[in-house]
Amino acid sequence: MSAVTPHPAALGPADFKSDLKPVWCPGCGDFGVVNALAKALAKLELRPENVGIVSGIGCSSRIPAYTSAYGFHGVHGRALVTAAGLKIARPDLTVIVAGGDGDGYSIGGNHFLHACRRNVDMTYIVMDNRVYGMTKGQASPTTEPDWDSKLSPEGTGLREFLPLTIALASGANFIARGYTGDPNGLADLLVEAVRHPGFSFVEVLSPCITFRPEQLEWKKLVRAGGFKPTSEFARAVRRLLRDDGFDLGVLYRGARPAFQPRKAPTPRSIEDLAARFAL
Ligand SMILES: Cc1ncc(C[n+]2csc(CCOP(=O)(O)OP(=O)(O)O)c2C)c(N)n1
Ligand code: SF4
Fold first, then answer.
1. Which residue's CA lies nearest to atom 9 of ligand 1?
2. Which residue among 210, 214, 218 has the greatest number of ligand 2 atoms within 8 angstroms of its CB, and so is best to mutate?
């Protein structure tokens, strides 16, 4: 009699959490993101060993350690390229990238543009608190120009970076905005993002309770379902022209085919390999 492979039992959100207790400040928005991510992975009926979560550096970038999936806590601003390499080498894995606005839009800004353009099949979650939390409250690219703080008295005066607009212009194939105070809504967005082929970008409003306690007011400002999903690029552009940063939901679902690495035939000998590099 041939062996029967037992159908693996369905996993719940708790199975996607690790035993580590997050060191985030009590009330940090990032707790909601790890909860939503665990719910999403369970809804997707994945298993921890089939998921790779890559991050940069920052409070938000600690997230892989709080999940039971494979994790890579890498270098500041360089998570996307690591994740792209992982997905290309292991296309069977579901690859998630996570980090903060400083990590992704400042030091990692160039990589963000090219990840959108390259369209490798993975999901990028940015926990945007409009500040550098880990390094104690410097202004980030998404900080409001008039945010008055000890480190930027009277504000930086610099206009904000517009993540969704930049992602759309650069070629991201799925663009959404979520809020950590709505873990169920966020989990649903993450499920859609992971299922959508190509590069999916989910910007998450995630308050930094310590350096930006005023962000607790976001719960009164966000509008669930404020975005109506479209597959029309021009319509998405027009929608962003009247974006105040608090509409939630899927903005754009593109149809670009995901990046496929070209497969070179395996070299038959060392001479064959050398010949390919000959000028
Ligand atoms: C190459 C390099 N430059 C600077 C730093 C210092 N650094 C660590 S985290 C961080 C910013 C984190 O901000 P963000 O990505 O917004 O995450 P948050 O802590 O707010 O979640 C910086 C500048 C570093 N670790 N490496
Ligand atoms: S400093 Fe801000 S971002 Fe970092 S853990 Fe505390 S509340 Fe969260």
1. 58
2. 210
Nearest atom in ligand 1 to 103's CA: 15
Closest ligand, as measured to the CA of 29: 2
Q: What is the pLDDT of residues 49-64, one digit of tens each?
A: 999 999 999 999 999 9
Q: Tens digit of pLDDT for each residue in 62-74? A: 999 999 999 999 9
pTM beyond 0.90: yes
The first and second tokens of residue 226, run together, are 């404020």
